[in-house]
Amino acid sequence: MERIILLCMVSICLSAVQAQKFLFNQKWGPAGYKEWRGVNEETAMDKIIKTNELKATQIIDGTTTLREGDIAVSSGRPPRICFARSCLWSKSVDGHVYIAYNLSPEYNEMDTMLIKTGMANIEQGTCVRFVPRTHQRDYIDIQPKSGCWSYLGARGGRQTVSLQIPNCVQVGVVSHEFMHTLGFVHEQSRLDRDNYVTIMWPNISRDRLRNFEKFRTDTLDLPYDYGSILHFGKYAYSQRGEPTVLPKDNSNIQLGQTSSLSHIDRLKINRLYNCDDMDD
Ligand SMILES: [Zn+2]
């Protein structure tokens, strides 16, 4: 009998040790968090998910919720449909699309440099130009709030882009959020995505399934872009570290982008804003 009690105690103790290992394992993280090893690098969206999931309760308040993980939707206003060309920033007579911005004084010199590099990333080869706000009515107000997020397209007046310090102040993340500001949703939300990727529904965290909905977006007659800075990574919102998005045919194709826009991302911007493709 004593032996049995002793054995039970040992097994309880062992399971407690196991539980502790799990709870304090550095590899453990919130939904969507994936520790990367080997050649795969974290995509811009992986970094966003990591930050926003940790901050989820602070980001989602009574008036603003996040769609697809980082697209702000304000419940105070009727949701603006941005699927066609209804939420574009206006185009100047000189052919450029100027986006006026205000940068919070909370950003230090290094943060400012990284955010401006993100802007330059969008400007390169496109007709978009970011200009410090002087008098413009419509502008983005870049603030280090909780998480990385942006509204979709131009809403009219002041609109916040949140780039939390330091997690969101990375060139890829900044560029990704500005793509939303320009009016683009995530690449794998395209209506025709099932021809190109397989969504592994059982591997997605139960409460994050909605982030994988499809939307009636304008594909602008451009091919599906696995390497878009707006593409989810393979492990986005994974429940147990299993892949959630797999390219059809060839699972070795890299999904998403770390820091730069893809060539098609630039074409996308120029098509949506009716600009000629620029080579610089
Ligand atoms: Zn996003």
List the helices and strands and how they pair.
Layout: H1 2-24, H2 44-54, H3 56-59, E1 64-67, E2 71-74, E3 97-103, H4 109-123, E4 128-132, E5 139-143, E6 148-151, E7 158-163, H5 171-182, E8 197-199, E9 245-247, H6 263-272
Parallel strand pairs: 2-6, 3-4, 3-5, 5-7
Antiparallel strand pairs: 1-2, 6-7, 8-9
The structure holds zinc ion.
Short summary:
This protein has six helices and nine strands. It is of the alpha/beta class and 280 residues long. The strands form two sheets. A seven-stranded mixed sheet has the order 1-2-6-7-5-3-4. It has a two-stranded antiparallel ribbon with strand order 8-9.
Structure characterization notes:
The chain has 280 residues and is α/β, with parallel strands linked by helices. It has a domain of 141 residues: Collagenase (Catalytic Domain) (3-Layer(aba) Sandwich). Helices cover 27% and strands 15% of the residues. The protein has a seven-stranded mixed β-sheet. Strand 6 and strand 7 form a beta hairpin. Bound molecules: zinc ion. Zinc ion (ZN) binds next to helix 2 and helix 5. Zinc ion binds next to helix 2 and helix 5.
SS element count, helices:
6
Spatial order of the strands in the main sheet? 1-2-6-7-5-3-4
- Give the names of the bound compounds: zinc ion
N-end to C-end Cα span: 82 Å
Kindly report the name of the CATH homologous superfamily of one domain: Collagenase (Catalytic Domain)
Helical proportion, percent range: 25-40%
What's the total number of strands? 9
N-to-C SSE series? HHHEEEHEEEEHEEH
CATH class of one domain equals: Alpha Beta
How would the global form be characterised? globular
Architecture of one domain in CATH?
3-Layer(aba) Sandwich
Examine the coordinates and then state which fold CATH places here, giving the name of the CATH topology of one domain: Collagenase (Catalytic Domain)
